[in-house]
Amino acid sequence: MNNIFVQYPKCSTCQKAKKWLEQNDINFIDRNIVKETPTVKELEEWIKRSGKEIKKWFNTSGLKYKELNLKEKLPTMSDSEKIKLLASDGMLIKRPLLISDRGIFIGFKEDVWKELI
């Protein structure tokens, strides 16, 4: 399976993660989270594979998250509603994402990503 690197080009953490992937000769498909927002089907599969709660997939420091008052709304939403919301706007998704056969990595933590090498 190819590694899929889902990122937002203007995000400094995403830039750092991309540089790290390149420096470590890790091949990946580069995907812009806004132009190619993950679909409901992709998110369902990735969230399941990650073993992490859906709330961990939200970019809680993002403007959109705050504008929509999601801190208050998420606890009352169903998993299905949360996934549809994530799929509706890439800026709601925590980034970068690295989808690989070794796991699903949410956010860039170099020590965790070293599992890829």
What is the CATH topology assignment?
Glutaredoxin
| Protein structure class | alpha+beta
CATH superfamily: Glutaredoxin
The residue-averaged pLDDT reads 95
Corresponding CATH architecture: 3-Layer(aba) Sandwich
The amount of beta strand, in percent, is 5-15%
Q: How many domain regions?
A: 1
CATH C-level name: Alpha Beta
User: What is the share of helical residues?
Assistant: 25-40%
* Element-by-element helix/strand order: EHEHHHHEEH
What oligomeric state best describes the polypeptide chains here?
single chain
Side-by-side strand order of the widest sheet = 2-1-3-4
Low-confidence stretches: none
What's the Cα radius of gyration? Answer: 14 Å
The geometry reads as: globular
CA-CA gap between termini: 15 Å
- Tell me the number of strands: 4
Largest sheet: 4 strands, mixed
**How many helical elements?**
6
Key words describing this protein structure:
alpha+beta, 4 strands, Glutaredoxin, 4-stranded mixed beta sheet, 39% helix, 117 residues
Task: Describe the SSE topology.
Blueprint: E1 4-7, H1 12-23, E2 29-32, H2 40-50, H3 63-67, H4 70-73, H5 79-88, E3 97-100, E4 103-106, H6 110-113
Parallel strand pairs: 1-2
Antiparallel strand pairs: 1-3, 3-4
